Amino acid sequence: MKTAISALALATALFAGAANAADLPSHKAPPPYIPPPPIMTWTGFYAGLNLGGGFFASNSSNQGWNWGWNNGNNSTGGVIGGGQLGYNFQVTPMFVVGAETDFQGTSLGSGGGNNNNWWLLGGGFGGGAGTARLNWFGTVRGRVGITLLSPQLLVYGTGGFAYGEVQRNSWWNQNSAVQTGWTAGGGAEWMFFPNWSAKVEYLYTQISGSGNNNNNWLWAFNPGWGLNSTNNRTRFHTIRAGINYHFHFGSPAPVLAKY
């Protein structure tokens, strides 16, 4: 009898211990913490290349000489290409501001056309036969944009300072000058892959001479007279496509939003 009682007590104790062990908390390791992906942002430096075309505006002028411009009647378009460097700051999820500088080589030029007459102006002879070229130009611009339809699509306006080398060629000689002025336009840029975006941009640019040769009494013997005149205005349109790489220093590349 005592043996049966002892066996029953032992079984009860074992059963109670097993029940208490089942109630103990598990020591299984928690799942690893996975931080949320970074938010899509336009903030940061970027650099890229572009290629496009352009043409002179019909109201480019050369103080009555029209050396090669011919009031735009025979102006021809050309290819432009170069690079850009800039910085964006995303003020809000919808509003982006920034600054950009670019430098372009061009083949924009025009012929003298029918502008071959010789005139007597102020006691000196001058001629209109020749060609005009824009060898290169650059800009330093501000940008203001909004992410209109998607965080990845930036639609922007841009404007600022412009400069470029204008060259006039004739049978007599060749002259060139660096003119300065302004530019304005707009475009759209699409972040199609982390750190990479593509853009299309239009610019209207007007540059003119600095005025440092207006009083040169030898102007009548210089077929390039007027390049540095403030009345000599070179106006042209450009349309270009480009690609940019965005540098997100110190943080992971943004993850593109899914829709």
What does this structure look like?
By secondary structure, the protein is mainly β. It has a single domain, classed as Porin. 8% of the residues lie in helices and 52% in strands. The chain is built from 1 helix and 11 strands. The chain has one helix at residues 2-22, and strands at 44-56, 75-76, 78-90, 95-111, 118-121, 124-127, 131-146, 153-169, 174-193, 196-208, 233-247. The strands form 2 sheets. The chain has an 8-stranded antiparallel beta barrel with strand order 1-3-4-7-8-9-10-11. Strands 5-6 form a two-stranded antiparallel sheet. A hairpin with a 2-residue loop joins strand 5 (118-121) and strand 6 (124-127). The longest helix has 21 residues, at 2-22. The protein starts with a helix and ends in a 12-residue tail after the last strand. Residues 63-73, 112-129 and 214-224 have low confidence and may be disordered.
The strand line-up of the biggest sheet is 1-3-4-7-8-9-10-11
Mean pLDDT: 76
| Percent range for β-strand residues | over 45%
Which structural class is indicated by helix and strand composition?
mainly beta
Helicity, in percent? under 10%
Question: Unreliable segments (pLDDT under 50, ≥5 consecutive)?
Answer: 63-73, 112-129, 214-224
**Principal-axis shape:** elongated
List keywords for this structure.
mainly beta; Porin; elongated
Q: How are the SSEs ordered, and which strands pair?
A:
Layout: H1 2-22, E1 44-56, E2 75-76, E3 78-90, E4 95-111, E5 118-121, E6 124-127, E7 131-146, E8 153-169, E9 174-193, E10 196-208, E11 233-247
